[in-house]
Protein: ATP-binding cassette subfamily B protein
Organism: Amycolatopsis jiangsuensis
Amino acid sequence: MPTQQQDSPHGVTATVLAPVLSARAVLRRFWPIARRERRWLALGALLLIGAAAGDAAAIWMFSVITDGALTTGNLSAFWVPALEWVGLVVLSGGLVFAGHYLTARAGERFLLRLRDRVFAHVQTLSPDFLERRKHGDLVARLTSDVESVEALVNSGLVEAATSVLTVVFFATGALLLRWELALAAFAAVPLFAVVAKNFSRRIGTVARKERAYHGELVSVVEEDLANLAVTQVYNRQDTEKERLHRHGLSWMSTKLSLVKLGALYSPSVHLLETVCVLSVIGLGTWEIAQHRMTLGQLFAFAAFLGYLYPPVQSLGTLTLTVAAASTGSARLIELLDARPAVTDAPGARQLRGARGEVRLERISYRYPGSPQWVLRDFSLTVYPGELVAVIGASGAGKSTIAKLLLRFDDPVSGTVRLDGLDVRDLTQHSLRSGISLLPQETAVFHGTIADNIGYGRDGATMSEIVAAAEAADAHAFITALPQGYDTVIGRNGHGVSGGQRQRIGIARALVADTPVLVLDEPTANLDELSARRVAEPLRRLAGGRTTILITHDPALAAIADRTVVVPGGQDPHPAGDDPRWHAETLRLPQVGRPG
Ligand SMILES: Nc1ncnc2c1ncn2[C@@H]1O[C@H](COP(=O)(O)OP(=O)(O)OP(=O)(O)O)[C@@H](O)[C@H]1O
């Protein structure tokens, strides 16, 4: 299935529309998720159908009052049917209320479950897969596309059921009153169907464009907000404003096309409806003149038709809902069908109490879709408690080693072992419970500093958080903040410096307290002073743990027990011309415990 957007090598984004799916395909795929809601949907639909039956009976009362009281002037014939009529209105009002509430509740619960399910699936996908996507487009899929599926699977189905049965009630009423006239009126129904089909086809095409443009717009907003500082530094506000405006214009024009089609649909159907009702009144007048019908019956007949056409119209509108839902569903299915790069093997084992021996055995790896080998026959053993610096040219594959160890993907050949166990035989959850990763820039969530440090381990206590912050040399700066550990930091670590953010990351890793630690260029984004300040906490963090320290910084590499070079990459010398790299360090063996 094609993706919604594809980036050309030149960075120009082409919009690729979602494929067309039939209503049946959408239902087959998503109906199982509505399983728990089915009885509530059925009950809601039954109540709404009951309300429609109440309305049909009320119309009958109208005919009784017209013929019994109105045309004869007999007031005593008015009260009983009038009271019955009021009773019916109260009853169907109650049924409408309960029916709408139940179906809406079922719809919302379906929405919640579908969104949870899609998000849970997204969490199984590799970070590389998600990085290739535009985040804004993923956001659109998890929000508005999920809603469009709900509109079909729940509300749509209930509407279809109630509309069909409502049509049956009012059609039966009309047939019972005067079947010849009723058949003449029904002759118009195929006309409604033709109009609805025509509109739904056109709306379907525009809706697919609208969804795609919406995804693009959300992506641009997301990217612009994330990169606001760069925009301001390079004075590119106008460029970004113009870009957002352009995407906004595309979305606006497709939305207006949708509105135009929707707005044209209603009057077209209304015109059709008026012509039908007038033809029936004309025919009915003739029937009255022939004494085959009373005035009350003609009024009731016209009322039945008045109630009959709206559900016919809403069945037509439903085809428009299907068109929109088809687009949203296709985009969700594309995401749901994306297979995770790795899954737990059947019978995968739990890793418990790891000692922390890491062994890469003749690993070869290339990224999916890339012809280029990143690692060829690469081997490395890191013994429990050992701190090994991994260096190499840019692009040599150092970070790739970290990804393979954390099992974001599996090597094409070779084996990654933890404590002698092939990581493919372990559950991903238990494997990752044994390894912490400290990247170039610590990711922070919108929340307090305490929450961000405690993120390392579910259930971490405040005293553990404070102890970790002390060991990470973060306690002093945290307590100097007016709110201390309760200071809220934004998603981008707003309010704390790069070095402080890394120390929060170190504290988080200390809280996690895993036997294996991967430090992926932890000082790369820091100035020399901050980098030096972080070195000691890093040493404390690494103490007693198996640590792989990926770095370009010779001073930081000096804290390692030994250094390993990853061959390849773009730079002929792993550390450039920096004389601080000790030639002998670079020649240390890659496999085997150092003497
Ligand atoms: N998701 C990806 N898809 C395709 N190729 C990738 C991906 N990530 C990295 N690469 C490529 O794999 C190679 C190794 O990347 P990696 O990030 O492991 O290098 P590195 O040694 O850590 O580099 P640096 O020191 O610059 O961080 C590079 O050529 C890179 O372009």
Remarks:
- Residues 20-336 form a domain with the ABC transporter transmembrane region fold fold (CATH 1.20.1560.10).
- The CA atoms of residues 523 and 531 lie 5 Å apart.
